[in-house]
Amino acid sequence: MGYFEGINKIKFEGASSKNSLAFKYYNAEEQINGKTMEEILRFSVAYWHTFTADGTDPFGAPTMIRPWNHLQGMDLAKSRAEASFELFEKLDAPFYCFHDKDIAPEGDTLKETFANLDVMTGILKDYMKTSKTKLLWNTANMFTNPRYVHGAATSSNADAFAYAAAQVKKGLETAKELEAENYVFWGGREGYETLLNTDMELEQDNLARFYHMAVEYAKEIGFDGQFLIEPKPKEPTKHQYDFDVASGFAFLQKYGLQDKFKFNIEANHATLAGHTFEHELHYARINGMLGSVDANQGDTLLGWDTDEFPTDLYTTTLAMYEILQNGGLGKGGLNFDAKVRRGSFEPADLFDAHIAGMDSFAIGLKVANKLIVDNVLKDFIAKRYSSYTDGIGLEIAEGRTNFHKLEQYALSLTKVNNESGRQEYLKGIVNQYLLETLSSVKV
Ligand code: XUL
Ligand code: CO
After folding, report:
1. Is the Cβ–Cβ distance between 310 and 44 less than 8 Å?
2. At what angle do helices 110-129 and 158-177 cross, to 10 degrees?
3. How far apart are CA 156 and CA 308, in angstroms?
4. Axis crossing angle, helix 376-384 with helix 347-373, rounded to the nearest 10
5. Pairing status of strand 191-192 against strand 239-240
6. Helix pair 313-325, 277-286: axis angle to 10 deg
7. In terms of Cα–Cα distance, which of 269, 297, 304, 300 is closest to 283?
8. Separation of 101 CA from ligand 1 center, angstroms?
9. Taking ligand 2, which is a single-atom ion, which protein residues have CB atoms under 5 Å away?
10. How does pLDDT run across 10-25, given as a tens digit for each residue?
């Protein structure tokens, strides 16, 4: 203890609190439909943004003032681990997530890297014995090291494929050891830049073989966490294979992997793919594939992944609307794959950022729950599609018709009457629920 001096355990103080280091809306204990906010929201801290990132950007040097900045190698790794559990405790965070490379430095050989990982896994395991914070997921960083310049499981080089396999094998052992609830694949370099040098068919077949081997090995060692694929359309590669949920789902189905995987959906990745966050959540949900969430937000003025802490209440509301209708996130959670801005370089900014994100999702949860309890959108949608509940519509919905019958029916119509979709009215209603919830929050 002692990395974040002057910062006490963050408490819920209510909407009128002027204390920046207090929750205004996130009240872990508060019950929403028989479950606590903590149980529904399952917040997670991302190790890489909070403990590993130093504020470097393509134009400038590190800016982050961190108590561990003077250290290196394994000393640095140990210090970050100690600091992380202090932050988790102060935020009362139920979960955290990491890449292998975040928790332990790479050695000169794979053997050395594994030895470093073993030490750090043991240290994290010890902290976890006396902490409530569990591992939501871990993953392998197969994008930073130059060996992955052409990809990992989709590399043109079989040696890189093998190295990646060894890394994931170790990752699954770590997941088992730390009792991770999930294991994530984000295909950082699994994509391509130009077809002029790419065998896309082989790359995709290999990616599927890799996933199958991971599933097999998890079974072999008895790791029963949920496998998750995290789609992202671009960055760092121009074309990433796991573009969005729809393309990822098609891939999983083609290769018979759809029962073994779900999706980890990141807000900023959704918008990079030209979708809304709620579109991706919805698409996964209706296909039974919504696994977990990387909770962040992008910037509509910028075309890249800015990984900002989520503060847009409209978006958190519509995201929670999907998550609640999914019956929650199961083994998944809301992982803040988000970083403080380069100019927010003080340790206290890490707390402000998480508090803002947690409060924003708490508000979203309350508004979404009210929208669901009052059946506002559901009733509207049911009425909008009511033509499929009797007559010719029911015949269509039950698969009891054909083009001959439909042609006959159409010939009998004098006019097709439509009703307004009333989009503006519905947006007004969502605003009304948002404002009503905000004003009714106990202060
Ligand atoms: C990159 C990204 C990753 C994954 C884990 O955009 O989101 O941090 O969440 O590899
Ligand atoms: Co992510």
Report:
1. no
2. 20
3. 34
4. 50
5. antiparallel
6. 0
7. 269
8. 13
9. 266, 294, 337
10. 999 999 999 999 999 9
- Give the span between the Cα atoms of 318 and 42, in whole angstroms: 17
Instruction: Report yes or no on whether pTM surpasses 0.90.
Output: yes
Cβ density class 338-347: b for 16+ within 10 Å, e for less = bbbebebeeb
186 alpha carbon to ligand 1 midpoint, in Å?
A: 6
Before 236, cis peptide (omega within 30)? Answer: yes
What does DSSP assign to residue 145? S
Q: Are 310 and 267 in contact (CB under 8 A)?
A: yes
Rounded to whole angstroms, the Cα distance separating 347 from 63 reads: 11
- Of 126, 212, 226, the closest CA to residue 175 belongs to 226
The percent of residues above 70 in pLDDT, for the chain, comes to: 99
Spell out which residues line ligand 1, taking CB within 6 angstroms.
99, 139, 184, 186, 230, 232, 266, 294, 305, 337
Here the tokens at position 81 are: 């681990």
Q: Which of 35, 45, 29 is nearest to 324 (CA)?
A: 35
Residue type, 154: T
Interval 139-193: pLDDT, tens: 999 999 999 999 999 999 999 999 999 999 999 999 999 999 999 999 999 999 9
Say how many Å lie between the CA of residue 13 and the centre of ligand 2.
Answer: 30
Q: Is 92 left (phi over 0), alpha (psi -120 to 50) or beta?
A: left
Residue 275 is a catalytic residue: no
**SS in 3 state form for 35-60?**
EEHHHHHCEEEEHHHHHHCCCCECCE
Report CA Rg, the chain: 24
Q: Which helix (H) or strand (E) element contains residue 214?
A: helix 200-221
Instruction: Answer yes or no: are the C-beta atoms of 30 and 40 closer than 8 Å.
Output: no
Catalytic annotation, pick one of 49, 92, 99, 275: 99
> Using CA atoms, how far apart are residues 317 and 321, in angstroms rounded to an integer?
6
